[in-house]
Amino acid sequence: MLKILPEISRTLSEYLLLPGLTTEDCTPDRVDLGAPLVRHRNGEEPALRIALPLVSAIMQAVSSPTLAVALARAGGLSFVHQNQRVEDQAADVRAVKRHGAEAATSPHASLDPAGRLRVGAGINSRDFADRVPALAEAGADLLCLDSSDGYSVHQARTLAHARETYGEALPVGAGNVVDGRAFRYLADAGAAFVKVGIGGGAICTTRAQKGIGRGQASALIDVVRARDAYAQETGTYVPLCCDGGLLDDAHMTMALAMGADFIMLGRYFARLDESPNPKVELDGRWYKEYWGEGSRRAQNAARYGQRGRMVFEEGVDGYVPYAGGLPEAVARTRAKITSTMISCGSTTLRDFHRDAVLVPVSAESFKQTGAEVRLRRPALTPGG
Ligand code: IMP
Fold this sequence. Notes:
Strand content: 15-25%
Radius of gyration: 20 Å
Largest sheet: 8 strands, parallel, barrel
Helix content: 25-40%
Number of domains: 1
Strand order of the largest sheet: 5-6-7-8-9-10-12-13
Number of strands: 17
Bound molecules: inosinic acid
CATH class: Alpha Beta
Number of helices: 13
Shape: globular
Distance between the termini: 48 Å
């Protein structure tokens, strides 16, 4: 029997938040953006947390050691990309771990118990038997399976192998998924966290090439329900990472309001000084190059489940407007998320998940979101 879900697939920009009661407690210094990174018993502290719920995409054009250091200092976490030889990726992880000592300057920095900056790394379900031990040796704090479609026995097998070898000492996240069935499968298989999103990335052509995917809002809402049901049934909370298509700060806030624990960003970090991709001038404006892991340029056959050479592309190779340094960009984003949470009366992400009230917007009300006025003056800040 042909199955067609009754709901339309919706994106994050199709929703708005209603303000909630702002009390005296709702001040910027009291807002805590801390997020759990790994599975834990309900009500207990997770073994890994970040102070800022932003992680960088597992991509060549994004997650270099330089970016990983800057992001960990700001309170987030990078996942060093896996589209390179095992020894090169392990060297990238080591390079980040060697900076530890300097990190004490930042109050939010993501630090391991030895005071070194934390860093994650991408893995795949093919060469994990070689890659995982090398990354563990290099000191990676957290791993993540890097695939456009994570609902597979290959991911379950990789998770089982890592758990048998390292137990809780080296947690591994899995994904990507867009519905509750796939979430439950990976949660049962022992995923440390589950990553949500197929086809929404700024450089992504998966939906056009393969017809697979789901609007990010619909995917997230479905998976959040599954996560909460899973926590109630099993007593285990498995955090969710919203990945792809978060084009501006309002999308990030919306994803957090809908129940994402933390968010993964590619384009956002690719625009900044710290990303490894070249900065170029075109017609008097500065850009940075940004290409998908499924583009011919990246040739990341592991992520796309193709053996050997790629036979078709699932990503674009292009430019994104240059937007300055990471600390400034992240400070602006932090301020915007904080400000929205205050409007909604929430001071922690957990409260925000519980209290947020969302409303879908009609195509007509979409037109009234200030686009006409925005055309008249340049933006206040780059990327702002
Ligand atoms: P962005 O933040 O919208 O740029 O999306 C980044 C996300 O897009 C990554 O974390 C991946 O999940 C996904 N992605 C990366 N490269 C490709 C690609 O070539 N095709 C499709 N999706 C991609």
